Amino acid sequence: MRREEILVDTDWLAERLLDPRVRVVDCRYYFDGRDGRAEYRKGHIPGARYLDWTDVTVDPNDPIAYRLAAPEHVAQRLGDLGIGDEHLIVGYDDEGGHFVARLWLTLATYGCGDRLRILDGGWTRWVMEGRPVSVEEPIWPRSQFTLPGRDRDPGLIVDADTVHRAIAEGTAVILDVRRLSEYTGEEVRARRGGHVPGARHWFWQQSLDWDGQRTFLPAAEILRRAQRVGLTPESVAITYCHGGVRAAHAALALRLAGIRNVRVYVGSWAEWGNRDDLPIALGLPAPQSCS
Question: Domain range for residue 174?
């Protein structure tokens, strides 16, 4: 995947804020009690509307494991928001594309990932550069958004059975991209703590200039960091986290680094950690890993 196929910079967006073919969505979301929609109302990129990833991309019948919603649900939600087939979506958040990546995963799985761009650096970079901010929420008329669900790419997302087979057969590198405390089992967010046996730890924020503008690092640097845990451009990799959001971001970053065969275990630890029939491991990463 080439950088320009998914990322745009702040200059690019600033020149297109009045373009009716561009729909900017604010995807800020928090697990610390803050309300992303409330943050949006305090200030956002002019012309942007708020998009809650849980409302658009999560199967409403399976809110625990965060599996992808059906294409009909995704299309309905985006159309209700005012995004149609004629629009290019530009998404941003304040965590380097963390939550927008879940929208990318959903659209790419259903065959139209090319209809989305991620603002590199997002809200963090926009504010640091002193760009204009608005509190006005635009009104977009309801539109028709079409997803070619029949063209769904079965290779981008995988289920628990596929991960289990990969462990037994050694056919893929399993990457746990959560915090190290989640990986070791010290921090427990499901019925059981720990990690998938044999999984290597590769924290998802390693692909970003996290302490700066939260832009993606150059592809060569992301690849260099991935190589520390044994990945190469020829590797088959499966990423997972807790709910398939950090895992989506990590998969996108690795694809930008030239590792093409990356899949996402969408159910992630929210499923694996709550199923007693699946094996777990505890403790620190193997010596070749990094945290």
Answer: 157-272
